[in-house]
Design brief:
- The protein is mostly helical.
- It has 20 helices and 9 strands.
- It has helices at 15-24, 32-49, 75-86, 96-111, 119-130, 149-159, 175-181, 193-198, 202-232, 242-246, 251-264, 273-276, 284-287, 289-311, 335-363, 386-402, 424-456, 466-478, 490-501, 504-513, and strands spanning 5-8, 27-30, 90-93, 134-135, 138-140, 164-166, 172-174, 319-320, 326-327.
- Helix 18 (466-478) packs antiparallel against helix 20.
- Belongs to the PAL/histidase family.
- The modification 2,3-didehydroalanine (Ser) is found at residue 146.
- One of its GO terms (biological process) is protein homotetramerization.
- It holds the Pfam family Lyase_aromatic.
């Protein structure tokens, strides 16, 4: 576990801190401001619990069962029961980083003092994270409304010492055993606390924040791949001039064009339109690369703005207001997050699509301006990268299916009380798959473009730029081989994928280009 500590206060947290806890195992600590906010809000709940008037989540049932008033003698059982009954997920285990993200985000909301839980409940959540205990959460169970109910319920179940969880060693064991092993005491829930642990958009938000972090790296990597393909195809960099992008002032477009210019600086391969056959303009997949990637960048900027607003929120129902009122609301509806999750999946699919078109152009001798068929060593005897493009095409086709929005669907639940839901969890799950696919697609383009640049560099007078040479050297160091006769290709493609996914591609060219946008 990483010993870096993230301090959770009543004023919230940052996207970077969420990622640090989720992925890097950063420790969490509640500050005194958060503890005081928790104590203050709890006093309001205790006062309401002592009154005869029914208050949702404190002294009533839940959802369509909210019409029943629950007496004091059954309220602890009520809170236990909502956790047990709602921990109804099915399917594969959700990734550890997703579970840690949703736990940390729920802790962030608890610490805001808007949920009414006792400080010891929040501390128990922090202790669970710090012990490296990760509740077993299943793929299916959230409709993205009333919060990510089933996923969060499985986490609350672990706090109660029930169900199964994964220890720091990754082995699933009974939660009670893991808590005891780490000196943690199961939580005895009181009024409202079970509901407060379940009622948030934390799962979909956590996945959105991690996708934003990954896509920031992948959009920059896509610009590098596009520049390498342009270089390998003897294209022109004149279309990347800042003044051309200033006349259509989308910020993402300008950033992508600037990145490509940095990568192409000093290249002896660009601008050879007239050498083999007259070309007035490059194909759209080359010439319009900044426009497509830039639109994706602007989509990412919008998604980040939504994520940061959601991160500054305290999502619960009912919510404890600063003046002590406890009010029902609809802030748990996941529509704002669901929409941008789906929007990003569209941008990912289109970015992958244009990357695949450039790869196919590199492999087609009729369109590659002098490169050997399929970049093969001895075409006919060797197939070169023919099937690498098939793999890339299969990935792009899958990404197009994943771009179909989840948020336009809704299935009523809870006896029509919850009659419109966001499906935000589903949108987040498919976006994670899409981000993985995009890393693979860009990896294939980088691999093909690097091979094509190497083949060009053997031609008299055609010297690739320093950035291209740095990418090629980095690829080789990562384990992806260069041109030559056919060989077992899957390990090379896996190495290229890892080179892109890990950020090693950007690290390799940073000494040449400086930081890319």
């Amino acid at each position: 576990m990483n010993m870096h500590t993230v301090v959770v206060g009543s004023s919230g947290t940052s996207p970077e801190e969420v990622v640090a806890v989720a992925r890097d195992g950063a420790r969490v600590e509640l500050d005194e401001e958060a503890r005081e906010a928790l104590r203050t809000a709890r006093r309001f709940i205790d006062d309401l619990a002592a009154k005869p008037d029914p208050v949702y989540g404190v002294s009533t049932g839940f959802g369509a069962l909210a019409v029943r008033h629950i007496g004091p003698d059954l309220r602890a059982q009520l809170q236990r029961n909502i956790v047990r009954s709602h921990a109804a997920g099915m399917g594969p285990r959700v990734e550890r980083e997703v579970v840690r993200a949703l736990m940390f985000l729920r802790l962030k909301t608890l610490a805001s003092g808007r949920t009414g839980v006792r400080p010891e409940v929040a501390q128990a959540m922090a202790d669970l994270l710090n012990a490296g205990i990760t509740p077993l959460v299943h793929e299916y169970g959230s409709l993205g409304c009333s919060g990510d109910l089933a996923p969060l319920s499985h986490c609350a179940l672990t706090l109660m010492g029930e169900g199964e969880a994964e220890g720091p060693d990754g082995v699933l064991r009974p939660a009670a055993e893991l808590l005891a092993e780490h000196g943690l005491t199961p939580v005895e829930l009181r009024e409202k606390e079970g509901l407060a642990l379940l009622n948030g958009t934390d799962g979909m938000l956590g996945m959105l924040l991690m996708a934003c972090a990954d896509l920031a790296r992948l959009f920059s990597s896509a610009d590098v791949a596009a520049a390498l393909s342009l270089e390998a195809l003897l294209g022109t960099d004149r279309v990347l001039a800042p003044e051309l992008h200033a006349v259509r002032p989308h910020p993402g477009q300008a950033a992508s064009a600037a990145n490509m210019l940095k990568v192409l600086e000093g290249s002896g391969l660009t601008g050879h339109h007239q050498d083999d056959a007259p070309r007035v303009q490059d194909a759209y997949s080359v010439r319009c690369a900044p426009q497509v990637a830039g639109a994706g960048r602007d989509t990412l900027a919008h998604a980040r703005a939504v994520a940061e607003r959601e991160l500054a929120s305290s999502v619960d129902n009912p919510v404890v207001l600063p003046d002590g009122r406890v009010e029902s609301n609809g802030n748990f509806h996941g529509a704002p997050v669901a929409y941008v999750l789906d929007f990003l999946a569209v941008a990912v699919a289109d970015l992958a699509s244009i990357a695949e078109r450039r790869t196919d152009r590199l492999l087609d001798k009729n369109r590659s301006h002098g490169l050997p068929p399929f970049l093969a060593h001895d075409a006919g005897v060797d197939s070169g990268l023919m099937i690498a493009q098939y793999t890339q095409a299969a990935l792009v086709s899958e990404l197009k299916r994943l771009a179909v929005p989840a948020s336009v669907d809704s299935i009523p639940s809870s006896a029509m009380q919850e009659d419109h839901v966001s499906m935000g969890w589903s949108a987040a799950r498919k976006l994670r798959t899409a981000v993985d696919g995009l890393a693979r697609v860009i990896g294939v383009e980088v691999y093909a473009a690097a091979r094509a640049v190497e083949l060009r560099s053997g031609t008299a007078g055609l010297v690739p730029g320093e950035a291209a040479r740095a990418v090629i050297a980095g690829l080789r160091e990562a384990g992806a081989g260069g041109p030559g006769g056919d060989r077992y290709l899957a390990p090379d493609l896996a190495a290229a994928e890892g080179f892109v996914r890990s950020g090693a591609l950007l690290d390799a060219i940073r000494p040449v280009t400086g930081p890319l946008a």
